[in-house]
Amino acid sequence: MGKNGTRRAEAMATLARLQARSTILEHQYYFRNSVVDVFRKKENDAAVKIQSWFRGCQVRAYIRYLHRVAIIIQKWWRSYLGRQHYQLIVKLAYYTMKMNLYNAMAVRIQKRWRGYKVRKYCFNYYYLKEYLRAVSEANDAIREALDEFADMQEREEKKATLEREEKKRDYQARKMHYLLSTKQIPGIYNSPFRKDPDPWELRLQKAKPLTRQRPRVTQEHSVSLSDWLACRSARSFPQSEVLPPIDRKQCQGPFRDITEVLEQRYRPLEPTLRVAEPINELKEAREEFRRQEWMRNVNDKMFLPFSSYHKNKKYIPSMHSSSKYGPDSYGCQHFRDENPKKWICDKDFQTVLPSFDLFSKYGKSYSKAGQIV
Amino acid sequence: MSQRQVLQVFEQYQKARTQFVQMVAELATRPQNIETLQNAGVMSLLRPLLLDVVPTIQQTAALALGRLANYNDELAEAVVKGDILPQLVYSLAEQNRFYKKAAAFVLRAVGKHSPQLAQAIIDCGALDTLVICLEDFDPGVKEAAAWALGYIARHNAELSQAVVDAGAVPLLVLCIQEPEIALRRIAASALSDISKHSPELAQTVVDAGATAHLAQMILNPDAKLKRQILSALSQIAKHSIDLAEMVVEAEIFPVVLTCLKDKDEYVKKNASTLIREIAKHTPELSQLIVNAGGVAAVIDCIGSCKGNIRLPGIMMLGYVAAHSANLAMVVIISKGVPQLSVCLSEEPEDHIKAAGAWALGQIGKHTPEHARAVAVTNTLPVLLSLYMSTESSEDLQVKSKKAIKSILQKCTYLPALEPFLYDAPPNILKHVIGQFSKVLFPWIFRDTSAEGGQLSTTY
Q: Which PANTHER family match (chain A) (predicted)?
């Protein structure tokens, strides 16, 4: 147990030596570590810096490389996409171009067709213009015609009023005929102090004196002579509706019997044969006869005789007496000329055969000559 | 002697009756006496005199009754209630022409007041006797009978139908051909009154051959006759297209246009009424009138008269223009628009202004050309003032508003639209602005268009 003990004693000695140095050791250890530490830190920092820079460069280079590569990939990929897109666009543009062309052509066709259709079937502009022009012409014509018509009416009215005035003045002149101036006495319209007579004076000279107007009796259509005397005018013997009483006393004096007087007064007219018949009695009798016949006819168309049945040829005048300018006036107009303007009235002469009154006085005259006793 | 005295009593009585009846008839001509007569009980006194022995007293009593009944409807009702009518009708068949005239006068005087009184006349069987009177020889009797029938038929369609059923129409057509002017007038007026109620009645009148005779008589110089004839033809033509065509086939054009130049105002009015009734049915009939130059004649006629006489002419122009754009263009070139604007500004009455506004609207509504022709004459401000003024009637306001709207919707004439920007109300202003936009947009887009020089098609 010696070795162990020596060892232990050595150890204890070292330990005591160490312990004695330990505090300095501690400090020295601490100082040396700290100085080294400082250097170490500095060097560590520096190393870290260098390493980080270098690593940074490395990574950057790597990233650059990656970028380059990515760009290449993207470039290729995008060009591929772009070419696809471009093809689509080209297709679309081509398609729109074709469609536009078709549309434009279709518009041309439709334009022509619609213009044609509207002009031909629906609305013809020139026809409308022409129609409007024709209508305005018709309007003008109508306006002129109506103006003329209104003018004509006015003129006629004026003429009618003038004529009425003229008639009135004429009538007045006829009424005032007695105011005409004579050789001895100048009339009121012919005063000696005037240079020339008043126009009324000339009118009075021309006027026919007015006869007194008899009251017009409205007669029936056929007035025969026999009821001429039964006139009911107020100036003739008055007829009362009430008959006079039968047993009236006779008026005193040399009066004739009233019945005789009335008989004589109202004796009917006994006209001669010549007077009693109208002057165109023959013609009237013929008309009457014709009227009776017509009354009895069943059909108005007369039977034509069969002998004239074949006479239906048209008359062809001879060449000598007809020309293409109308009938020749050689025979009618130059030998016997008629001037209608000189005719007094428009009626032709009538052939009148009056009756003769050989037997009208038979039995009515006072003489008894010729009577058989 | 005593016989003479007895006879004298009767004479005196007869004289007294005659005098009484004549005095009453004379007094009844003046309206101020009729009240007194009525209060004195004249009806009951006149009634037995109708059955008098002496014909003159009968006639004068009938005449007096007629004059009294003519005055007002109370007296007419008293005549009906007093059972006088059956007696009149009975004796109408037998008596002489003076009595017939007087009795027909009484029937006319009673029948003119109201439909009930006319019905009462029909109920006592007067129609058959009146129709028999129409066949009488004397033109005065015919005139009185035709007048009575006309007044009865005037009220409504049933009474007209009764008159037609009694067989009056062929006889009236015969009366129209008689030489007396007064009879023709009355017969034409009676036909006009019959045919105005319904198309069937008008067809009956046409079937009796009236149109040919009426059309011939348009040339007659008498003004009152022309009035009645034109009125009859227009009442016939107004109901349907077929009737209007039949009237036109009777060859009234262009003779009717001379009536538009007549001196009598009512002849002008009735002539323009006739033309209006024909023009309003179809475009073809309007075309016929236009081709005959009727539009110019009507425009001249409008220019020469005033007031209510103008109204049918204005309406005729409106109807013609309403049918189609071409006809409206015809109205424009015949110088109708200045005339219508003159009517619009110078007439005082509202209904005539309303008609003028309507007619202008019908002319201007078709295409921008038409609207321009209306706008150039400066009528749009007048129409606007009529619409805005508070004094115009409602009808006038409605019509002028419609006219403004329809013209504005087609109007592209900017100088006429400009005044509207300042004083139009908002509901019209929006149309004005719409029109401005329509006119100005193409201008704007012309300058800022796409490269190909194409207009953008959507704006």
A: ASSEMBLY FACTOR FOR SPINDLE MICROTUBULES
